[in-house]
Amino acid sequence: xxxxxxxxxxxxxxxxxxxxxxxxxxxxxxxxxxxxxxxxxxxxxxxxxxxxxxxxxxxxxxxxxxxxxxxxxxxxxxxxxxxxxxxxxxxxxxxxxxxxxxxxxxxxxxxxxxxxxxxxxxxxxxxxxxxxxxxxxxxxxxxxxxxxxxxxxxxxxxxxxxxxxxxxxxxxxxxxxxxxxxxxxxxxxxxxxxxxxxxxxxxxxxxxxxxxxxxxxxxxxxxxxxxxxxxxxxxxxxxxxxxxxxxxxxxxxxxxxxxxxxxxxxxxxxxxxxxxxxxxxxxxxxxxxxxxxxxxxxxxxxxxxxxxxxxxxxxxxxxxxxxxxxxxxxxxxxxxxxxxxxxxxxxxxxxxxxxxxxxxxxxxxxxxxxxxxxxxxxxxxxxxxxxxxxxxxxxxxxxxxxxxxxxxxxxxxxxxxxxxxxxxxxxxxxxxxxx
Amino acid sequence: xxxxxxxxxxxxxxxxxxxxxxxxxxxxxxxxxxxxxxxxxxxxxxxxxxxxxxxxxxxxxxxxxxxxxxxxxxxxxxxxxxxxxxxxxxxxxxxxxxxxxxxxxxxxxxxxxxxxxxxxxxxxxxxxxxxxxxxxxxxxxxxxxxxxxxxxxxxxxxxxxxxxxxxxxxxxxxxxxxxxxxxxxxxxxxxxxxxxxxxxxxxxxxxxxxxxxxxxxxxxxxxxxxxxxxxxxxxxxxxxxxxxxxxxxxxxxxxxxx
Lengths: 435, 258
Known about the structure:
The complex is a heterodimer of chains A (435) and B (258). Chain A has 435 residues and is mainly alpha-helical. Chain A is 67% helix and 1% strand. Chain A has 16 helices and two strands. Chain A has a two-stranded antiparallel sheet. Chain B is an alpha/beta fold and 258 residues long. Chain B folds into two domains: 1-79 and 170-258, P-loop containing nucleotide triphosphate hydrolases (Rossmann fold); 88-167, no CATH class. Helix content of chain B is 41%, strand content 24%. Chain B contains eleven helices and ten strands. The relative contact order of chain B is 0.18. At the A-B interface, helix 9, helix 10, helix 11, helix 12 and helix 16 of A face helix 2, helix 3, helix 4, helix 5 and helix 7 of B. Chain A: It is found in: Cell membrane. Chain A: Pfam families: BPD_transp_2 (PF02653). Chain A: This is Branched-chain amino acid transport system permease protein. Chain A: It comes from Sporolactobacillus spathodeae.
C-alpha cells in the first residue's frame, strides 16, 4: 500500500514539486519562528535536508538546479535573517561552501585521477597568503613599487590570481611528485603540505614576505561598487559565487575527454597510456585544477578572517578534507558535497550546540557532565568512529559514485542511420555469423 | 610493403636476457603470429614495441620511423595499439566509456573549450558516442553499453579490449593472447573477428597466441620464440613441421621419439 503510493508519488513530478515546495516553506517558517531560541538548529538542519531530498527527486534536472539555487541563495538567508543567530548560521554556511569547493577540488585529484594527496591544504594556504599579502600592508615590505594594501575592489581579481598561483603550485608539486606512486605519493604530498606551512611560518627573514608566525593582520575586506563586504552573510554570497563556478567546472569536466582520461589513469595506468593518454600531463591537469579550487577559496578565507597565519593550514586540515571526500564517496560529486556539509555542520554547529546544551544542563544542576566529555572536544573521536564505520559498512561513501549512462536507444537509432562500422568494401558480415 | 620492422631487438633485465637479437618484418595488412612456450619473451617483445619497456639494443621501425625512446602514449599516436594478456580494462567505467577512451587521441576537445561549451565539442562528443556504439555493435557488445566494464563476462571483456584498441584506429594492432580462456565457440567467433578486422579496418595484425588451431588458421606468417631467441619463422605449414619448433614445445626427447 505504502509502496504503491510511493511509486505513484515518484512518477508524478507535480506531486514531488508540491511536496518539496511545501517542505521548504514549512521548514523555513520554522527556522524563521525559532530563530532566537536554542533549538534553531533543528529547523536549520531540516531546511538543509531539503537539498538532499531534492537530489533524490525524479524531476527535470534544470528545475532541480533552479530549486536548489533558490533554497541556498534565497530561502536559507531570508528565513534566518531575523534572529540573533543569523551571522552564526551564515558563518557555518560560508564554511560549508568553502570546504565543499575544496573537497570537490580534492575529489578531482583523489576521486577522479586516483592520486592520494595528503597535503591538499597547502593550496588553500597559497590562495590565502596571496590575498593576505597584497590585501594588507605586508606587501610594502618587499614590493619595490605600488602602495599596499590594495583596495578591496581588487579582491575579485585576486580570486582568480589565487586560483592561478595555486594551480602553478599544484604543477610545481606535481612535476617531481608524479614519479612516485601509491603510498609514496601520499607521503611526498604530506611532506609538501608541511613544507609549505613551515616555509610560510618562517618567511619573515631575510625578506619579510609572510610576517612569519605573527601572521598577516588587517587584511582589507573585499568591496563591491564601493560597498565593503565584512559580515558572514555577505561572504556567504562570495563563497556561493565561487561554489557555483566550481560546480560548473566539475560537472562539465567530469564526463568530458579530460574527465575520462583522469578515470582511465586511475583505473589502469598502463592501459591508459596504451590508448594514447599522456600520463604526466593528465595528472598535472588534475593537480592544477584541483589546487585552483582550493586557491580561490583560500582568498575568500583570508578576506573573511582578515587575518592569516600558518596555524590554519596544519596537516589535520588536509585530513579533514580527505575525510569529507571519503565519507561522501570518492569520485561522486553529490556525495562529496554531502560529505563536506555533514562534517562541517557536525563540527561547527551540532557538536557546539550539543556542548552548550550540556553546559546549560550542568549549570542548572540537572546533569553533571565533566568538561572533558563535552561533545565539542570529542570531534576527532566522533570522526574516527564515523570513518571506521564507513570503512566497514559503506566503503562507497554516503552517495556512491554512479557512472553517467548514455541513451542506448538513441545511439542505436543514430548508428542505424549511418553506414556500418569500417570500410564499406569489406565482404564478410560478422553480425550475421553469430549462429 | 613492410609496416613494422624490428631490427636486432634485445632486452636484458639485469643478467637475464628476455629477448635476444630478434629481427622481424611485418607486411602491411597481414596477420602475423608470434608463438612460443611460456616465458619465451613474447610479451616482453610486445612491451618493447609499445614502449612499456625500453629495448637494451636494437631498433623498431613503423613505416620507417623509429619508435625507440618514445613514450607509450606517443607510440599509440603513431598508430600502434594493443590488447593485454591479463585484461586491463577500465573496470569502474562503462563499456562505452572504455571505447571512448580508446578514441582519446582522435578527439580534439580541450578542457577550456569544454568549459566554454563550444558547439563543435558537443558535436564531436555526440559523433564519438555514435561511433563507439557502432564499434561495440561490431564486436557484439551493443547490449552492454551502460554496463561497468568490470562486470562483463570474461569473453566479453576480451572483446571489449579489442573494441577499445580498434577505436584508436591503429595501423598495427597487437593482440596479446586474445583467445586465452575462451571456449571453442568463443574462439571461433574471435577468429572470424580477427579475419574481418583485417579487411574491414585495413589494419595489420600481430598476435601472440597459444591456441595453435587459431594460429595456424589465420596467420599469414609465424615467428617462433624460445628462451628469448627467434628459433623459426615461416608460413604456417613450414612451422607445423619445423623440427626445432616441435622440440621447443615438446622437449627434445619427446620430439625424437615421435
